[in-house]
Amino acid sequence: MLDSFRVRAGLPFGDESLLRRALTHRSYLNEHPEELQDNERLEFLGDAVLDFITGAFVFNRFPEMSEGQLTRLRAALVRTEQLADFAVSLGVGEVLRVGRGEAEAGGRVRQTLLCAAFEAIVGALYLDGGLSPVQRFVEPLLAGAAERVLATQADIDAKSLLQEWAQAELGHTPYYRTVESTGPDHARQFTVEVYAGGDALGSGSGRNKQAAAQAAAEDALRRAGVV
Questions:
Q1: Which band of pLDDT confidence, cut at 50, 70 and 90, is reported for residue 224?
Q2: Beta carbons of 146 and 61 less than 8 angstroms apart
Q3: Which helix (H) or strand (E) holds 133?
Q4: pLDDT digit string (tens) for 12-29?
């Protein structure tokens, strides 16, 4: 199954043990003590590699964009939801190694786990062959996602747009509340909810509170039919 996934996803691994580790969630180690490492360190590395490659990609692909536009587009391309979508398109959930309890709780389809696994795959691919194979793997995904982001204006400042809408339509200024923080220190996930006038408008998750708040604002805008 792992080999067929590697071929289907177009992952040129010389050392397949790196891919296996990238697909190993820490819950799997609790039930399989013979496994020595989960994917958290690879996730850390992949996050950094993705930031660099995505930054270089948008810089070269969109020479007409200002720094601010490039920053917004890069942020949209590497957010949790987008990386989880990449993982879904590749079928990562089918081969992700998780503990039985995590699997029963829906871990194979959870965005945070899929995002982490995708980043770990990128980290593993970088260790295996350097930047070139990572670019060949990631850039086609980024190209398609960038077109969708720009077509739907998903790179807009959702918090600013929500504030304008809420003040005009509801007569209230939105406020944000962090409701959950999970994961290890190097890969913390925050969940934020946004309210206006005491009513919950939306929620979102991200690697920091700012990203989670943006995701919550985007969720609120979608629910309200604004975007």
A1: very high
A2: yes
A3: helix 131-152
A4: 999 999 999 999 999 999
Whole-number Å distance between alpha carbons of 99 and 107: 9
Q: Could you list the active site residues? A: 47, 119
Cβ proximity of 187 and 123 under 8 Å: no
Query: Each residue of 130-142: b (16+ CB within 10 Å) or e?
Result: eeebbbebbbebb
**Is pTM beyond 0.85 here?**
no
Written as one string, the DSSP assignment of 63-102 is TT--HHHHHHHHHHHHSHHHHHHHHHHHTHHHH-B--HHH
* CATH for 158-224, options being 3.40.50.2000, 3.30.160.20, 3.20.20.70, 1.25.40.10: 3.30.160.20
Q: Which of 171, 154, 166, 164 is nearest to 215 (CA)?
A: 154
